[in-house]
């Protein structure tokens, strides 16, 4: 019986030693993504998309404001039938502005996902390649942790892997 207990303790100690021998690293993925040139390209594409959507939205708003001015000034002269038609047109335009705004936001979110997904995938792939090449069993996301255990920061290694130059020190 004592031999079994001793063997169990030795096995547990061996397992604990194996677990302790595994390397753990961390990385701030936000810092990595912001350092990647692909992020800037994705941001520029998203900004261009947003600007083009804003042009159309601006045109709709201008048309809405013009119709509003016409209604305020001329509606006194209109017959009830004309008033009804004009107010219906105005309400339809207001609905169109609202629908466009909602659809534009959804489209922009879709494009954001489309533009940034490859950048995020490249970052994850690089982190995994660096972790594997350097023998890290676990890599923790620094931006999700409040307290970081004593681990290695993989950000410089991943930047080197991706050939991203270090930013000059702030003065």
Automatic annotation (TrEMBL):
Residues 1-21 form the signal peptide. Keywords: Signal. InterPro entries: Chaperone_Skp, Skp_dom_sf. The keyword Signal applies. The keyword Protein biosynthesis does not apply. GO terms for biological process: protein stabilization. GO terms for cellular component: cytosol. GO terms for molecular function: unfolded protein binding. It holds the Pfam family OmpH. Belongs to the Skp family. This is Periplasmic chaperone for outer membrane proteins Skp. The lineage of its organism: Bacteria, Pseudomonadati, Bacteroidota, Chitinophagia, Chitinophagales.
């Amino acid at each position: 019986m004592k031999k079994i207990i001793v063997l169990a303790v030795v096995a547990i100690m061996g397992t604990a030693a194996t677990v302790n021998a595994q390397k753990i690293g961390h990385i701030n993925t936000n810092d990595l993504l912001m350092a990647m040139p692909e992020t800037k390209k994705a941001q520029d594409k998203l900004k261009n998309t947003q600007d083009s959507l804003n042009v159309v939205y601006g045109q709709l708003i201008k048309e809405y404001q013009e119709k509003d001015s016409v209604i305020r000034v001329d509606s006194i002269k209109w017959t009830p039938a004309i008033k009804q038609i004009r107010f219906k047109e105005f309400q339809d335009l207001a609905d169109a502005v609202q629908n466009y705004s909602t659809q534009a936001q959804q489209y922009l979110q879709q494009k954001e996902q489309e533009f940034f997904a490859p950048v995020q995938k490249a970052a994850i792939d690089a982190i995994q390649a660096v972790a594997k090449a350097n023998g890290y069993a676990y890599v923790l996301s620094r931006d999700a942790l409040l307290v970081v255990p004593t681990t290695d920061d993989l950000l410089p290694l991943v930047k080197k892997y991706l050939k991203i130059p270090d930013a000059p020190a702030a003065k």
